[in-house]
Structures are given as structure tokens and as C-alpha cells.
TrEMBL record:
UniProt cross-references to InterPro entries, sorted A to Z: AFP_Neu5c_C_sf, Aldolase_TIM, PseI-like, PseI/NeuA/B-like_N, Pseudaminic_synth_PseI, SAF, SAF_AFP_Neu5Ac, SAF_PseI/NeuA/NeuB
Domain AFP-like: 292-347
Name of the protein this chain belongs to: Pseudaminic acid synthase
Pfam families from the UniProt entry: NeuB, SAF
Organism taxonomic ancestry: Bacteria, Bacillati, Actinomycetota, Actinomycetes, Streptosporangiales
Database matches in Gene3D superfamilies: Aldolase class I, Antifreeze-like/N-acetylneuraminic acid synthase C-terminal domain
Domain of life: Bacteria
Length: 347
């Protein structure tokens, strides 16, 4: 188990739902704040930003290596610098966004992409750090964030087992005592068939840490499946409306969908229960209404048992239905009234 801002995250607690703002502010602080309000209204537990500028991620170069592949579903052919210009959250927006989130009862933190981002986030007092999938191999950045002593969440999209091990080891060695590791498919949007949420128990076994899912598929199905396989934290991108467009809108949840995720992920978690086969305590009343053999007509002592005076009906209380073949043709030992459960002492 780990704890972020006093909120426990682990197998014994409902899933922790993190809403990713990313670039869905579409260049407007007012829209960003409206998304914070929508996230809070939906019942999510945390809001996450990404802290970078175009210049902290790349350079303003238009060589082919600095362009997204032409066949990319959302950003085909885009120049990286221009894409990051559109998608980044200005640093001066962080404080008002975090303040609004805290006022609305949300934990608010971010994914830094370079040391200057960690410096900014430390000044703003974030309660945790997220390491994005692309940065899982940036071990110096991981060590820097871990050295703050705050909880960390590491996404593992595109990472091999050895890369995950190196990232987790770097975080631990640098002082991180509370770590969550997220399965992730770093494709936007991600096809459900490549989510491989069956890998979550393996990821937990390999790392020994709390696990979750950073999900870029459409809808909430993959996230709910992940909860069934041990995910304790779910991260999804969120927008006010996909119809509004934006760099991440195509694979983001709308507020009503986020609310459904919060509700249904907790319902899925509660349904896991324990390893048990047999009647549940809530089924006690139902057990009373199983079928059994009942006397369905007033009978006198000495009368034979027939299908006309003994039938298998609800409720329970009489002999089991399978005893019918054994009792037919026997005789009643005394007068028996209609509605009496048939027991061996009556025949």
C-alpha cells in the first residue's frame, strides 16, 4: 500500500482514479479550470498535469526525425515542437490549477519532464510525482524526483522488463519508499487488444509494488478489467467534450464517463470479495425459498402419498425434491394439514 496526501492506495482500498488534464485545456486557462471542476464533480480522486515546455522536451527543428510518423492516427506528420506548443500547460497556470483542485477536494500533482519541472513542482508543494512512459528510461530524472521523498507513480508503456527493473531500482535507491507502477500502452488512442491487462499480476510480482493502469483506450472497459486483475490506480485523460477537439480529446473521457468510471471501478473492486464458494450471508433469505416437498392437500392417517397430495414447491423446510421417488406410495402416519412440510416422521 502507498499513501498520497493521506489517501491510501492499494489492494485493500477502492481504486484511486486520476484524471489527466494534459493538453485538453486547448490553450485556455478558463477551460483548464472548468475541467478541474468537472473532474471534482465526477468524483475522481486526483488531477494530474504534465509539466514541460517545448524547449524542455525538444528543439525547434523540422528534420524528419522531429516529425510524428505520417500514418499516426491523431498527430500524423506534425512537428514535435509545434505539437508540444499546443499541448503543454504553461507553467504560470500550474498554481491556479492546483489551487482550484485543492479547493474542490482533489489531490493535484504532475509529471515532470526535466529538472526545472521538478524544481517548479517542489515550489508548488505537490504531494507526489508521476513519471511518464517516455521518461521511464530517464533514470537521472527518476532519481531526482525520488530524492524528494515523495510517493511516485511510474508508467511502463514501451518498457521492457529490464527497463522497468532499472526504473524501479533507481527510484528505490534514490529514496522513494512509496511507489506505484502502471501498466500502459503508449499509443494514442490505444487498441484494447494491446492493453494486455492480464499482465498486471506479473507486473506486481516482478516489482513488488502497487500496480495500476494508465489507460489510453476508448471508454472504461479496459480500466474495469484491470481492476479485476489487481489495478489499484486508474489514470485516464479527461476533456469537457470530445467534440471540442484538442490534441488528446479523441481518447479522453467526458465528465459523465469519468463519473461512471469512478462508480463502476469501485463496484468492480467490491465485487472481487474473497475466495469462497457457498452461500453468502446476503443469500440467507433466498435459501428459505428453495424447493422442497410439501403436503398440498389435507390428508388423513393411512392415506398413501401421491403426486396429488405431495408436491415439490417453494419454500424450503420439507424433504429435498429428489426424495419424491422414495416417498411416493408410502402412507401417512397421522392426519396432516395442507401447507405442512413433508418430513420422514409423517410417513
Amino acid at each position: 500500500m502507498i499513501s498520497i496526501g493521506g489517501r491510501a492506495i492499494g489492494p485493500g482500498h477502492p481504486p484511486f482514479v486520476v484524471a489527466e488534464l494534459s493538453g485538453n485545456h486547448n490553450g485556455s486557462l478558463e477551460r483548464a479550470l472548468a475541467i478541474v471542476d468537472a473532474v471534482a464533480d465526477a468524483g475522481a480522486h486526483a488531477l494530474k498535469l504534465q509539466t514541460y515546455t517545448p524547449d524542455t522536451l525538444t528543439i525547434d527543428c523540422d528534420e524528419p526525425a522531429f516529425r510524428v510518423a505520417a500514418e499516426h492516427e491523431l498527430w500524423g506528420g506534425e512537428n514535435l515542437y509545434r505539437l508540444f506548443e499546443r499541448a503543454h500547460t504553461p507553467w504560470e497556470w500550474h498554481e491556479p490549477i492546483f489551487e482550484r483542485a485543492r479547493r474542490r477536494g482533489l489531490l493535484a500533482f504532475s509529471a515532470p519532464f526535466d529538472p526545472t519541472a521538478v524544481e517548479l513542482l517542489e515550489k508548488l508543494g505537490v504531494p507526489a510525482y508521476k513519471i511518464a512512459s517516455s521518461e521511464v528510461v530517464d533514470l537521472p530524472l527518476i532519481r531526482l524526483a525520488a530524492a524528494t521523498g515523495k510517493p511516485m507513480i511510474i508508467s511502463t508503456g514501451m518498457a521492457s522488463v529490464s527497463e522497468i527493473d532499472a526504473a524501479v531500482s533507481a527510484a528505490r535507491e534514490a529514496g522513494c519508499a512509496q511507489l506505484a507502477v502502471l501498466s500502459c500502452t503508449a499509443t494514442y488512442p490505444a487498441p484494447p487488444s494491446e492493453s494486455n491487462v492480464r499482465s498486471l499480476p506479473l507486473l506486481a510480482a516482478l516489482t513488488g509494488e502497487v500496480v495500476g493502469l494508465s489507460d489510453h483506450t476508448l471508454g472504461i472497459g479496459a480500466a474495469l478489467a484491470a481492476v479485476a486483475l489487481g489495478a489499484c490506480l486508474i489514470e485516464k485523460h479527461v476533456t469537457l467534450s470530445r467534440a471540442d477537439g484538442g490534441v488528446d480529446s479523441a481518447f479522453s473521457l467526458e465528465p459523465a464517463e469519468l463519473a461512471a468510471l469512478v462508480t463502476e471501478s469501485e463496484r468492480a473492486w467490491r465485487s472481487l470479495g474473497g475466495v469462497a464458494i457457498g452461500p453468502r450471508s446476503s443469500e440467507r433469505e433466498g435459501l428459505r425459498f428453495r424447493r422442497s416437498l410439501y403436503v398440498v392437500r389435507d390428508v388423513s392417517a393411512g392415506e398413501p402419498v401421491t403426486p396429488e397430495n405431495v408436491r415439490s414447491i417453494r419454500p424450503a423446510g420439507g424433504l429435498p425434491p429428489d426424495a419424491a421417488a422414495q416417498v411416493m406410495g408410502r402412507h401417512f402416519t397421522r392426519d396432516v394439514s395442507f401447507g405442512t412440510p413433508l418430513t420422514w416422521d409423517l410417513i
